[in-house]
């Protein structure tokens, strides 16, 4: 018996939008990202919104926002994905 893990629910409109982004050379950043950030900020009533390409990037930005002075010691769990600890070092913290 096959149990499906995931199925494609993208329609032609979504596939075309994805294809247009890839063809533009801006898969992560670019006009579409900026447009989405603006619309999302408006939707949630915020002045700004920032979107990133991965959980690792999100962790990095949250660390830089939370620990501003750069001389912080950050604790991470021992059982976690490697990015949890990597972003601490990459951000310049201990």
Query: What's the count of strands?
Result: 0
In this structure, how is the largest beta sheet organized? none
- CA radius of gyration is 18 Å
The tally of domains stands at: 2
Q: What percentage of the residues does DSSP assign to strands (E)?
A: under 5%
Q: Describe the global form.
A: extended
Secondary-structure class: mainly alpha
* Intertermini distance: 50 Å
Q: Approximately how much helix is present in the residues?
A: 40-55%
GO molecular function: pyridoxal phosphate binding; transaminase activity
Pfam families: DegT_DnrJ_EryC1 (PF01041)
Protein name: DegT/DnrJ/EryC1/StrS aminotransferase family protein
How would you characterize the overall build of this protein?
The chain is an all-alpha fold and 94 residues long. The protein folds into two domains: 12-44, no CATH class; 55-90, no CATH class. It has four helices and no strands. The chain has helices at residues 12-24, 31-44, 55-66, 82-90. Helix 3 (55-66) packs across helix 4. The chain is extended. The model has no long low-confidence stretch (mean pLDDT 88). GO terms for molecular function: pyridoxal phosphate binding; transaminase activity. This is DegT/DnrJ/EryC1/StrS aminotransferase family protein. It comes from marine sediment metagenome. One of its GO terms (biological process) is polysaccharide biosynthetic process. Pfam families: DegT_DnrJ_EryC1.
């Amino acid at each position: 018996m096959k149990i499906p893990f995931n199925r494609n629910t993208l329609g032609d409109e979504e596939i075309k939008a994805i294809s247009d982004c890839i063809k533009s050379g801006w898969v992560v950043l670019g006009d579409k990202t900026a447009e989405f950030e603006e619309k999302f900020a408006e939707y949630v009533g915020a002045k700004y919104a920032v979107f990133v390409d991965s959980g690792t990037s999100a962790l990095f930005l949250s660390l830089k926002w939370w620990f501003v002075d750069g001389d912080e010691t950050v604790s991470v769990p021992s059982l976690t994905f490697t990015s949890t600890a990597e972003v601490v070092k990459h951000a310049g913290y201990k």
